[in-house]
Amino acid sequence: MDLELQEVKEIFEKCKSDWFSYVARVTAEKRPQQSDPPCPVDKEQEHTKVKHKPKKDQPGVVKQMYRDIAKQVHPDKNIGSQEDKERLMRQASRAKESGDLISLMSMCDDLGIKTPKLRQSHVKYIEQDIRNKETQIKQMKLSDAWIWYHSDEQKKDIIHKMLIKSLTE
Question: What 8-state DSSP symbol labels residue 77?
Answer without folding.
Answer: S
